Amino acid sequence: MNVEYTGRQYEITPAIRQQVETGLAKIRKILDDKFDTKVILALEKHRHKAEITISPRNGPLVGVAQAGDMISAINEALEHLETQAVKYKTRKKRHQQKKWNGRETQGEALQSAVGVNEKTAIPVVVHKFPQVAKTTDVHLVRSDEAVAIRPMTLEEAIKEAHFRDRDVFVFRDKKGKVMVLHRTRDGKMELIEAP
Length: 195
What we know:
Order of helices and strands: EHEEEHEEHEEE
Shape: elongated
Radius of gyration: 30 Å
Distance between the termini: 71 Å
Largest sheet: 4 strands, mixed
CATH superfamily of the domain at 2-97: Ribosome hibernation promotion factor-like
Strand content: 25-35%
Strand order of the largest sheet: 1-2-3-4
CATH class of the domain at 2-97: Alpha Beta
Helix content: 25-40%
CATH topology of the domain at 2-97: Double Stranded RNA Binding Domain
Low-confidence stretches: 99-107
Structural class: alpha+beta
Number of helices: 3
Mean pLDDT: 77
Protein backbone atom coordinates (compact mmCIF):
# COMPACT_ATOMS: atom_id res chain seq x y z
CA MET A 1 0.00 0.00 0.00
CA ASN A 2 1.45 3.33 -1.10
CA VAL A 3 0.42 6.06 1.39
CA GLU A 4 1.71 9.62 1.12
CA TYR A 5 1.44 11.66 4.33
CA THR A 6 1.43 15.45 4.58
CA GLY A 7 1.34 17.27 7.91
CA ARG A 8 0.39 20.94 8.06
CA GLN A 9 1.28 22.40 11.45
CA TYR A 10 0.99 18.82 12.72
CA GLU A 11 3.59 16.12 13.35
CA ILE A 12 2.57 12.67 12.12
CA THR A 13 3.31 9.99 14.71
CA PRO A 14 3.58 6.22 14.18
CA ALA A 15 0.30 5.74 16.11
CA ILE A 16 -1.48 8.03 13.64
CA ARG A 17 0.07 6.14 10.70
CA GLN A 18 -1.11 2.85 12.21
CA GLN A 19 -4.65 4.22 12.67
CA VAL A 20 -4.83 5.38 9.03
CA GLU A 21 -3.42 2.16 7.60
CA THR A 22 -5.80 0.01 9.64
CA GLY A 23 -8.77 1.96 8.24
CA LEU A 24 -7.39 1.79 4.71
CA ALA A 25 -6.99 -1.99 4.98
CA LYS A 26 -10.72 -2.19 5.72
CA ILE A 27 -11.49 -0.08 2.62
CA ARG A 28 -9.13 -2.19 0.51
CA LYS A 29 -11.18 -5.28 1.47
CA ILE A 30 -14.35 -3.53 0.31
CA LEU A 31 -12.94 -2.42 -3.04
CA ASP A 32 -10.79 -5.52 -3.77
CA ASP A 33 -8.43 -3.13 -5.51
CA LYS A 34 -4.98 -1.60 -5.09
CA PHE A 35 -4.95 2.17 -4.87
CA ASP A 36 -2.67 5.04 -3.94
CA THR A 37 -3.55 7.14 -0.92
CA LYS A 38 -2.81 10.74 0.05
CA VAL A 39 -3.35 11.76 3.66
CA ILE A 40 -3.29 15.44 4.67
CA LEU A 41 -3.46 16.16 8.40
CA ALA A 42 -3.70 19.79 9.50
CA LEU A 43 -4.07 21.70 12.73
CA GLU A 44 -5.84 25.08 12.50
CA LYS A 45 -6.79 26.99 15.68
CA HIS A 46 -7.69 23.99 17.84
CA ARG A 47 -9.39 22.23 14.92
CA HIS A 48 -7.90 19.00 13.66
CA LYS A 49 -8.58 18.36 9.97
CA ALA A 50 -8.08 15.08 8.16
CA GLU A 51 -8.36 14.71 4.39
CA ILE A 52 -7.83 11.23 2.96
CA THR A 53 -7.91 10.70 -0.81
CA ILE A 54 -7.80 7.28 -2.44
CA SER A 55 -7.59 6.75 -6.17
CA PRO A 56 -9.11 3.52 -7.47
CA ARG A 57 -9.43 2.94 -11.22
CA ASN A 58 -12.57 4.98 -11.94
CA GLY A 59 -11.79 8.18 -10.09
CA PRO A 60 -10.77 9.45 -6.67
CA LEU A 61 -12.73 9.09 -3.45
CA VAL A 62 -12.20 11.77 -0.78
CA GLY A 63 -13.00 11.72 2.93
CA VAL A 64 -12.74 15.04 4.80
CA ALA A 65 -13.46 15.59 8.49
CA GLN A 66 -12.84 18.03 11.36
CA ALA A 67 -12.83 17.23 15.08
CA GLY A 68 -11.40 18.26 18.42
CA ASP A 69 -8.60 15.67 18.21
CA MET A 70 -6.81 14.06 15.30
CA ILE A 71 -7.87 10.44 15.99
CA SER A 72 -11.55 11.42 15.83
CA ALA A 73 -11.00 13.39 12.62
CA ILE A 74 -9.19 10.45 11.00
CA ASN A 75 -11.91 7.99 12.06
CA GLU A 76 -14.63 10.28 10.70
CA ALA A 77 -12.80 10.72 7.37
CA LEU A 78 -12.31 6.96 7.11
CA GLU A 79 -16.05 6.42 7.75
CA HIS A 80 -16.88 8.81 4.91
CA LEU A 81 -14.46 6.95 2.66
CA GLU A 82 -15.96 3.62 3.66
CA THR A 83 -19.50 4.70 2.70
CA GLN A 84 -18.18 6.06 -0.61
CA ALA A 85 -16.32 2.80 -1.25
CA VAL A 86 -19.48 0.76 -0.67
CA LYS A 87 -21.39 3.00 -3.13
CA TYR A 88 -18.52 2.73 -5.61
CA LYS A 89 -18.47 -1.07 -5.31
CA THR A 90 -22.24 -1.48 -5.77
CA ARG A 91 -22.23 0.89 -8.74
CA LYS A 92 -19.38 -1.08 -10.29
CA LYS A 93 -21.20 -4.40 -9.71
CA ARG A 94 -24.43 -3.02 -11.17
CA HIS A 95 -22.52 -1.81 -14.22
CA GLN A 96 -20.89 -5.23 -14.68
CA GLN A 97 -24.25 -7.02 -14.44
CA LYS A 98 -25.65 -5.21 -17.45
CA LYS A 99 -25.82 -7.17 -20.65
CA TRP A 100 -23.88 -6.20 -23.75
CA ASN A 101 -26.98 -4.54 -25.23
CA GLY A 102 -27.35 -2.20 -22.29
CA ARG A 103 -30.35 -3.81 -20.62
CA GLU A 104 -30.10 -5.14 -17.11
CA THR A 105 -30.22 -8.87 -16.73
CA GLN A 106 -33.11 -10.26 -14.78
CA GLY A 107 -32.49 -13.95 -14.58
CA GLU A 108 -33.02 -16.83 -12.25
CA ALA A 109 -30.29 -18.54 -10.28
CA LEU A 110 -30.31 -22.33 -10.09
CA GLN A 111 -28.32 -24.28 -7.54
CA SER A 112 -26.60 -27.44 -8.74
CA ALA A 113 -23.50 -29.46 -7.97
CA VAL A 114 -20.66 -30.75 -10.14
CA GLY A 115 -18.69 -33.84 -9.16
CA VAL A 116 -18.38 -37.63 -9.41
CA ASN A 117 -20.12 -38.34 -6.09
CA GLU A 118 -21.58 -36.39 -3.17
CA LYS A 119 -18.24 -36.16 -1.33
CA THR A 120 -16.41 -34.57 -4.25
CA ALA A 121 -19.34 -32.47 -5.46
CA ILE A 122 -18.77 -28.72 -5.68
CA PRO A 123 -21.80 -26.37 -5.46
CA VAL A 124 -22.28 -24.26 -8.57
CA VAL A 125 -24.75 -21.44 -9.23
CA VAL A 126 -26.13 -21.42 -12.77
CA HIS A 127 -27.89 -18.32 -14.07
CA LYS A 128 -30.75 -18.69 -16.51
CA PHE A 129 -31.68 -15.56 -18.41
CA PRO A 130 -34.99 -14.92 -20.21
CA GLN A 131 -35.04 -15.53 -23.96
CA VAL A 132 -36.71 -12.24 -24.82
CA ALA A 133 -35.79 -8.97 -23.16
CA LYS A 134 -38.64 -7.13 -21.47
CA THR A 135 -39.77 -3.96 -23.21
CA THR A 136 -38.73 -0.68 -21.70
CA ASP A 137 -41.19 1.83 -20.30
CA VAL A 138 -42.35 4.52 -22.68
CA HIS A 139 -41.23 8.01 -21.76
CA LEU A 140 -43.34 10.84 -23.11
CA VAL A 141 -41.69 14.18 -23.69
CA ARG A 142 -43.73 17.09 -24.92
CA SER A 143 -41.86 19.23 -27.42
CA ASP A 144 -42.83 22.36 -29.28
CA GLU A 145 -39.71 22.16 -31.45
CA ALA A 146 -41.10 19.27 -33.54
CA VAL A 147 -44.30 21.12 -34.51
CA ALA A 148 -44.57 24.02 -36.95
CA ILE A 149 -46.87 26.85 -35.94
CA ARG A 150 -47.49 28.35 -39.38
CA PRO A 151 -48.51 26.51 -42.59
CA MET A 152 -45.55 25.74 -44.89
CA THR A 153 -44.63 23.97 -48.09
CA LEU A 154 -42.92 20.58 -48.15
CA GLU A 155 -39.54 22.12 -49.01
CA GLU A 156 -39.80 24.58 -46.11
CA ALA A 157 -40.74 21.74 -43.75
CA ILE A 158 -37.73 19.66 -44.86
CA LYS A 159 -35.39 22.60 -44.33
CA GLU A 160 -36.95 23.31 -40.92
CA ALA A 161 -36.62 19.65 -39.85
CA HIS A 162 -32.95 19.66 -40.87
CA PHE A 163 -32.38 23.00 -39.13
CA ARG A 164 -33.99 21.81 -35.88
CA ASP A 165 -32.26 18.40 -36.19
CA ARG A 166 -35.47 16.43 -35.65
CA ASP A 167 -36.29 12.89 -36.79
CA VAL A 168 -40.03 13.62 -36.66
CA PHE A 169 -41.51 16.96 -37.70
CA VAL A 170 -45.25 17.79 -37.79
CA PHE A 171 -46.59 20.65 -39.95
CA ARG A 172 -49.64 21.85 -41.91
CA ASP A 173 -49.44 22.36 -45.64
CA LYS A 174 -50.91 25.42 -47.38
CA LYS A 175 -54.34 23.71 -47.61
CA GLY A 176 -54.37 23.07 -43.82
CA LYS A 177 -53.77 19.32 -44.02
CA VAL A 178 -51.62 17.81 -41.24
CA MET A 179 -48.38 16.23 -42.51
CA VAL A 180 -45.61 14.37 -40.70
CA LEU A 181 -42.00 14.23 -41.88
CA HIS A 182 -40.07 11.25 -40.58
CA ARG A 183 -36.32 10.65 -41.02
CA THR A 184 -35.59 6.92 -41.36
CA ARG A 185 -32.49 5.21 -40.02
CA ASP A 186 -30.80 5.35 -43.40
CA GLY A 187 -31.22 9.15 -43.48
CA LYS A 188 -34.11 9.38 -45.99
CA MET A 189 -37.17 11.52 -45.27
CA GLU A 190 -40.68 10.02 -45.36
CA LEU A 191 -43.83 12.09 -45.73
CA ILE A 192 -46.90 10.84 -43.86
CA GLU A 193 -50.29 12.44 -44.48
CA ALA A 194 -52.64 12.46 -41.50
CA PRO A 195 -56.27 11.63 -42.38
